[in-house]
Amino acid sequence: MASPDPVCPTARLEIRERSTRGRASRTERQRRDDDRARDVLALALVERLTSGRRDAAVSCYLSAGTEPGTSLLVDALAASGHPVLVPRLGPLPDGTRRGGPDWAWYAGREDLRPGLFGIPEPSADGLGPDALSQAIVVVASALRAGTDGSRLGTGGGWYDRALVHAAAGTPVIVLLNDDEIESVPQAPHDRPIDWIVTPTRTVRCHPRFGPPTEAEYH
Fold first, then answer.
1. 103 inside domain
2. Is 68:146 a contact under the CB 8 Å cutoff?
3. Could you say which of 12, 68, 189, 205 has the lowest number of CB atoms within 10 Å?
């Protein structure tokens, strides 16, 4: 895993800004085409990691804005029999802020509503942070990630806090565009990832052992 960087805040801010600009420059058609190609590879990887168990629970973020899209991916996972855990970000029923990561079961697009920062979320009550331990595979959001297992999100640290509650050894996948694979400086609290899926390749990360290498499945 990438070692902590003494200038981490400045370096990470520059990478986030560059990533945000790059995603904003992509056309709707590019995003749509890339989402479709990436979904095929992501579904194949999930089936491989769950050993074909269609009842195995999978966690997946619900995309918003220029993020690699997950709406069709989540629908496909649910249609194939996988229970899907998705983030619950909005306030509690009494209007107070959630104290930490929370999850709910995906029940279809008609059940979704805009949550915090406009991110879709289900209307069901949250199950709490420990619900993530039920997932056999986690699909997390990212702006950049490296083959050394490093990952950079938007800066809130939500997934780093959430992944603490995943079962030991649970593989973490991030969805990226082809030009977004890049080792990034890591802070002590950052959690490593295991796989990167782009529209053209599936990359195995090696956050703990020796120099990073890639294993690609087409």
1. yes
2. no
3. 189
